[in-house]
Design brief:
With 399 residues, this protein is of the alpha+beta class. It has two domains: 121 residues, OB fold (Dihydrolipoamide Acetyltransferase, E2P); 203 residues, Chloramphenicol acetyltransferase-like domain (Chloramphenicol Acetyltransferase). Helix content is 28%, strand content 24%. It contains eight helices and 19 strands. A hairpin with a 2-residue loop joins strand 10 and strand 11. Helix 1 runs parallel beside helix 2. The longest helix has 18 residues.
Length: 399
């Protein structure tokens, strides 16, 4: 009896998937429930477990092929039955010694990353058990390589071709499904929405002082680090409650007002930008928000965010400041109608009560769909966020 391995039921709104990586080769044994193949969708990577224990007899969908729901991926056959008592099982011929080093052991996440970035696993030292390469090892290797390559361009002598011309290397790499989907959505939103951006700046001194004062106590009591994002989530929710149209979306010819506050938090991963959704933020404490963000960051690095965690949302926050951005115009995450861009905190001279003082300042940017949101509402919304951050007591007193 043979078994068929089929594409599992795909999340709603996803039409197909792409075969990312086979963990077994034809002829190899696999256990019941063991991950057999990874499928990449527009949002997440799905693992397909073996339906039975057996031998992988045939792969029908090679890596890189697009597959539809319920399509046959491979076939399994039962393992050979144990020999009858007294019957000698023929000895397997010894495998000829293969020249070179054995293939390094690595975790599935590390294997995916190595394959996507076309890295040589022999160059990556593994820190796992028995030298197993983990995803953190791949990331550390990339960091080291980037630092080694960060040299003064004026001191680098370009390699010359035999004709004396400067070498012009190129490398063609196919887009991942996630990157292709990101590109598609960005073009789509630019073509369908009337995007405008309004700016403001916020004095982060009050938030910074409050965070510095209670950071250690907060971490000891709640077991999670106190960052700036929880202050921004709270400030955004307070502003959305005052200006509900910012939390709304366009549904064909209707305006859909949402009575809940599901905030998307943009997270950068090796595969591209993802926006997991922190739900019911109006009901979360500061600690609850920080714990949710921390879990998203860990899952994003491991590539284990679920489809449900990446869908929905009524408003998004993007923090380009962690990469050093001083000012930018964030793009909408459809069907949401607005997104807040945070930026780098930079000490600048500001005028306060007729005197010049140095303050930690941050530029804020609100991109919004002008089809639904008027400029007056957008400006007032951003001013409300600014007021809450410059006087954090407002968030506690809900005023």
């Amino acid at each position: 009896m043979n078994w068929e391995v089929r594409v599992p039921k795909l999340p709603e709104s996803i039409a197909d998937a792409q075969v990312l990586h086979w963990h077994k080769k034809p002829g190899e044994a696999i256990q019941l429930g063991e991950n057999l193949v990874d499928l990449e969708t527009d949002k997440v990577v799905l693992e397909v477990p073996a339906p039975e224990a057996g031998i992988l007899s045939e792969i029908l969908a090679p890596e890189g092929q697009r597959v539809a729901e319920d399509q046959i991926l491979a076939r399994l056959k039962p393992q050979e039955a144990a020999p009858v008592a007294g019957e000698k099982k023929p000895e397997a011929a010894p495998k000829p010694e293969q020249p070179g080093e054995p293939e390094p052991r690595m975790s599935p996440a590390a294997r995916r990353l190595i394959k996507e970035l076309h890295l040589d696993p022999d160059q990556i030292p593994g820190t796992g058990k028995d030298g197993r390469i983990q995803k953190i090892d791949v990331i550390a290797f990339l960091d080291r390589r980037e630092k080694e390559q960060s040299v003064d361009p004026e001191t680098v002598s370009l390699s010359q071709s035999p004709e004396g011309a400067e070498a012009r290397p190129e490398r063609r790499v196919p887009m991942t499904r996630l990157r292709a989907r990101i590109a598609e959505r960005l073009v789509q939103v630019q073509q369908t929405a009337a995007i405008l951006t309004t700016f403001n700046e916020v004095n982060m001194q009050p938030v910074k002082a409050l965070r510095d004062r209670y950071r250690e106590t907060f971490e000891r009591v709640h077991g999670v680090r106190l960052g700036y994002l929880s202050f921004f989530v709270k400030a955004v929710v307070a502003a959305l409650q005052r200006f509900p149209v910012i939390n709304a979306s366009i549904d064909e010819e209707d305006i859909l007002y949402h009575g809940y506050y599901d905030i998307g938090i943009a997270v950068s991963t090796p595969r591209g930008l993802v926006v997991p959704i922190l739900r019911d933020c109006d009901q979360l404490s500061m600690a609850g928000i920080e714990k949710g963000i921390d879990q998203f960051a860990k899952k994003a690095k491991k590539g284990t965010l679920s489809f449900e965690e990446l869908t929905g949302g009524t408003f998004s926050i993007s923090n380009g400041g962690v990469f050093g951005s001083l000012l930018s115009t964030p793009i909408l995450n459809p069907p949401q109608s607005a997104i807040l861009g945070m930026h780098r905190i930079q000490e600048r001279p500001v005028a306060e009560e007729g005197e010049i003082r140095i303050r930690p300042m941050m530029y804020l940017a609100l991109s919004y769909d002008h089809r639904l949101i008027d400029g007056k509402e957008a400006v007032q919304f951003l001013a409300t966020v600014k007021e809450s951050l410059e006087d954090p007591a407002r968030l506690i007193l809900e005023i």
